[in-house]
TrEMBL record:
It comes from Litchfieldella anticariensis (strain DSM 16096 / CECT 5854 / CIP 108499 / LMG 22089 / FP35) (Halomonas anticariensis). GO terms for cellular component: outer membrane-bounded periplasmic space. One of its GO terms (biological process) is transmembrane transport. This is C4-dicarboxylate ABC transporter. Belongs to the bacterial solute-binding protein 7 family. It comes from the Bacteria. Residues 1-24 form the signal peptide.
Length: 325
C-alpha cells in the first residue's frame, strides 16, 4: 500500500511537471501576413520571431505565417478581433479601420526614410496608437511596406495623363482608389493574393506596390513597364487584437520591445532591397522609367484638400508631418 501511494505521488508530480511544460509550450503566438517569399514583410516578421523567441525562453513562441496563409489583410483584421490570430502586419488597409491612417494615402507625403523615422517617433506613436485602440486593436511596432511604384502592360507612365483608362489593381481603401481616379486610371481594390492572376489574364492592366512586393509577388513575369513614381509611402503596423490581453505581461513586454527594435531593421532592409532590385527587373525584361514627379504632385492637390476637410485633425497632421522635413 505504501509503495502504491508513493507510485501515485510520483505519477502526480510527473503529470504536474508535464502539464506545466505543455502549458508553456501551448502559448503559440500566430503572426500572419500577406508577404511572399523574399518580401520585406517576410524578412521583418522572421527577424522579429527570431529575436522574440530567443528572449521568451520557452514561455511562448512566435510562429510566422506568410503568403496569406492565414488570410487576406481584411480576413486577418477580423481574426485579430476574434482572437484566432495574435499578430498581423497590415499596411494600406488600415485606412479603412480609422480615418487617421489615411494620412499615408497622401501622395508624396514622405520625403525619405529619415523623414519617416521622425514621423513615426514624433507623430504616430500617439495619434495612430490611440486610433487603433479606439477600434480594439493595439499597435506594438511600426515597420515598412515602402515607397510604391506603378507597373502595367499598356505604356510607360510619365505623368498622370498616361494612366488614362488603365485598369489598375490597388489595395482596399477608398483614398487610393480616389487618388488614381483623379489621375485618370480605372482602379479596382483587390487582395494581393489575387493580383498575379488578374494581371496574367488581363483582367487588370497594372498595379502599384513597393519594389520588394512587386518582385516577391513575381509581377515582373506578367508586367512590361515599371514606372518609378514613389507616389505613396506605406508603413506596416505590427498589430495585436483580442488575444493580447490573454498573454502574460512579461511576454507582452518582450513582444513590444522586440517589435520596436525591428523598426530600424525594417527601414534598413527596405532601403537595401530598393537598391538591389532594379537590376533584377531589368534582367526580367521590364522597361523602367522615372516619372515627372512635379506633374503628379500638381495633380494631387484635390486629395490633400479632401483629407484636410474630411478627416478630423487632418490639417494638423499634415502640418506636423511637413514640419519634420
Amino acid at each position: 500500500m505504501k509503495f502504491l501511494k508513493t507510485a501515485l505521488a510520483a505519477t502526480v508530480v510527473a503529470l504536474g511537471v508535464h502539464a506545466t511544460t505543455a502549458s508553456a509550450q501551448e502559448i503559440e503566438i500566430k503572426f500572419g501576413h500577406v508577404g511572399g517569399p523574399g518580401s520585406l514583410f517576410e524578412k521583418s516578421a522572421n527577424e522579429f520571431a527570431r529575436l522574440a523567441n530567443e528572449r521568451l525562453e520557452g514561455k511562448a513562441e512566435v510562429v510566422t505565417y506568410g503568403s496569406s496563409q492565414l488570410g487576406t489583410d481584411a480576413q486577418l483584421l477580423n481574426k485579430l478581433k476574434l482572437g484566432t490570430v495574435d499578430l498581423a502586419l497590415p499596411s494600406s488597409i488600415m485606412s479603412s479601420v480609422a480615418p487617421e491612417f489615411s494620412l499615408f494615402e497622401m501622395p508624396y507625403l514622405v520625403e525619405d526614410r529619415d523623414h519617416m523615422r521622425r514621423i513615426r517617433d514624433e507623430v504616430l506613436r500617439d495619434v495612430f496608437y490611440d486610433a487603433a485602440e479606439s477600434k480594439n486593436y493595439r499597435i506594438i511596432g511600426i515597420w515598412e511596406n515602402g515607397f510604391r511604384q506603378i507597373t502595367n502592360n499598356v505604356r510607360p507612365i510619365n505623368e498622370p495623363a498616361d494612366l488614362e483608362g488603365i485598369k489598375l489593381r490597388t489595395p482596399n481603401g477608398v483614398w487610393r482608389v480616389d487618388m488614381f481616379k483623379t489621375y485618370g486610371a480605372n482602379p479596382a481594390p483587390m487582395a494581393l493574393s489575387e493580383a498575379f492572376v488578374a494581371l496574367q489574364t488581363g483582367a487588370m492592366d497594372g498595379q502599384e506596390n513597393p519594389l520588394v512586393q512587386i518582385y516577391s509577388q513575381r509581377f515582373q513575369e506578367v508586367q512590361d513597364y515599371l514606372s518609378l513614381s514613389n507616389h505613396v509611402y506605406t508603413p506596416a503596423y505590427v498589430l495585436a487584437g483580442a488575444s493580447w490581453s490573454r498573454l502574460p505581461e512579461d511576454v507582452q513586454q518582450v513582444l513590444i520591445e522586440t517589435a520596436e527594435e525591428v523598426e530600424a531593421y525594417a527601414l534598413q532592409q527596405g532601403a537595401m532591397l530598393d537598391d538591389n532590385l532594379l537590376a533584377k527587373f531589368e534582367e526580367a525584361g521590364m522597361e523602367i522609367n522615372e516619372v515627372d514627379t512635379q506633374a503628379f504632385v500638381d495633380g494631387s492637390s484635390v486629395i490633400y484638400e479632401r483629407f484636410a476637410g474630411e478627416v478630423e485633425g487632418g490639417q494638423e497632421l499634415l502640418e506636423r508631418v511637413d514640419e519634420l522635413r
